[in-house]
Amino acid sequence: KADQRIYTECLKKCAHSWNCMIWDYSDINYNWMLKLSIPASRILLIPHMIQNRLKPSLPSKLKPLRLRRRRAVMFGVVETSRRQLLLKKLHQNLRKSGISVELWAQNIGASNSTKNEYMSKMYAESQFCVNLHSYSNFSPGELHRLSEIVQFQCIPIFEEFSDKIGIEAYTKCGGVLFTSFRNFTKTIKTGLEMIEGNHFYSNKFSNWWATGIRWQTLLHDIMLLDHTLED
Question: Which residues does residue 157 pair with via DSSP β-bridges, in sequence order?
């Protein structure tokens, strides 16, 4: 994750080593590394943030959205100033709009089996799974959070981020609702209408995510595609 700037010097050293290759997942990070004079030939964009760490604790049967007892949940680093302010403002906006959604947000630390089971339980009980950025919306997407959420068939509502790679697929095939913070309340209202009208196709979207990435053949497929484009 090149956006973790503590690795900047390591990236520069890697770029000048014949046996080192930089793997990243974000086009924002890619463009930033180019500005550091890291050659494009030393960078390979790989979707390694699409993960499935909560799969072992996924319930065998999930409730329909209309029968879930919790409206919305968000896991992440909540103590950041930006996220605290946005959560407070979002709750105010929801109340003013008369929308009965209480966004339940909680910090979650390093991954372990107990925390994973707890997160899985909360996701499975919620209609909406929400994400607001910690520091800036001009940042790479938290795809690890997105890919762990969607398998629980809640409606994923994410604050827009700056990456462009995959956004169309995540929206059309994966059912993700991307929105600006300004329109967050409106998007939640749209989601409620989708639930009431049974118009959110959870199974279709979750099946697309469950298909996953063919990691065993990914590099081979990339090289084949590269040769095809050259031809």
Answer: 130, 177
